[in-house]
Design brief:
Layout (H helix, E strand, L loop, with lengths): L8 E6 L2 E10 L2 E11 L8 H44 L12 H11 L4 E6 L4 E6 L7 H18 L3 E3 L13 E10 L3 E11 L7 H21 L9 H12 L18 H8 L1 H15 L1
Antiparallel strand pairs: 1-2, 2-3, 4-5, 4-8, 6-7, 7-8
Helix pairs in contact: 1-2, 6-7
Length: 294
């Protein structure tokens, strides 16, 4: 403990000895302190100002060195996090044919782990996609987060923007949620919000920042691309290329002697519905059949 007025440091004497403590700063940033203990001479302890004046050149050099080391450490951490960002985005940037159509859990897991989160969720209601991932060995109240997702999705459909919530307002329904939230809408086109990508940290964890929000926005664009190319927009079922990719993935991971079955359905004479009632009614018939298959 020291007097706040002692900006450069202080001296304390006891039993014929004196300790001089010098405060090292870079502007207003506290870098550390240097303590020097001396035996008092015949004339007693030297004043702090005298000793500080003698050591001032060395103290300035030491402060600069500490500041440089701190800056280098910050730069290394920044470069490391940017390398991780690049690896995360590169892993997600392959063509749609490089991903299983349901490989969203992998993307979700990578987001949670790379951004240091506890929980992640992907919600796309019209495609019947509801993926969740939580860090193992964490005692999470996931039921609270799952209940909150629908409300956040409704919010995203109206606001159509990223929600970065490190502290919920007291009068908000989220005010009692013991988590920090980063949620980003998944868009189809300029206005339609098809889904939501959500990350959460415990309330005592680090705050979400703008860099992480931008990464999540890039991931939602990637997910939107996968959805567009892997799912039929009218029915929400897999497209044929995505279905074939899924089958190849399954066949590649099972016993070669295992048996498989594919059910194929056709809507007979659908053209009669189209001719007599219009294409929109024929589309409705296809959608009803798709829902039945689902």
């Amino acid at each position: 403990h020291r007097d706040p007025n002692e900006a450069d440091g202080f001296a304390r004497s006891w039993d014929g000895h004196t300790s001089y403590v010098f405060i090292l700063r870079d502007g207003k940033t506290l870098l550390g302190a240097l303590a020097v203990a001396c035996q008092d001479g015949a004339s007693g302890a030297r004043s702090f100002a005298f000793v500080h004046g003698l050591l001032r050149p060395a103290l300035l050099v030491l402060a600069r060195e500490l500041a440089n080391q701190q800056n280098i450490g910050d730069l290394r951490r920044d470069l490391s996090s940017r390398d991780g960002d690049f690896a995360l985005l590169l892993d997600a940037s392959g063509g749609a044919e490089d991903h299983d159509a349901d490989d969203f859990v992998s993307l979700l897991r990578n987001c949670v782990e790379h951004l240091g989160c506890a929980y992640g969720a992907l919600l796309v209601p019209d495609k019947n996609i509801a993926a969740h991932y939580s860090q193992p060995d964490l005692n999470l109240e996931t039921h609270l987060l799952e209940k909150t997702q629908r409300s956040l999705f409704a919010w995203a459909q109206v606001q159509r923007r990223t929600l970065l919530l490190n502290k919920a307002p007291a009068n908000s329904p989220l005010g009692t949620l013991p988590y920090k939230i980063l949620a980003c809408p998944i868009r189809h086109g300029a206005h339609h919000v098809a889904g939501l990508l959500l990350l959460a940290r415990p309330s005592q964890g680090a705050d979400f920042d703008v860099r992480q929000a931008r990464i999540l926005e890039m991931m939602t664009r990637r997910i939107a691309y996968l959805l567009q190319n892997a799912y039929d927009p009218a029915t929400g079922l897999l497209t044929r290329p995505a279905f074939e990719q899924r089958v190849l993935g399954i066949l590649g991971t099972v016993n070669a002697d295992a048996q498989h079955c594919v059910a194929y359905a056709d809507l007979d004479r659908l053209h009669i519905v189209n001719d007599n009632h219009g294409m929109h009614v024929g589309d409705q018939a296809i959608q009803h059949a798709a829902e039945t298959l689902r």
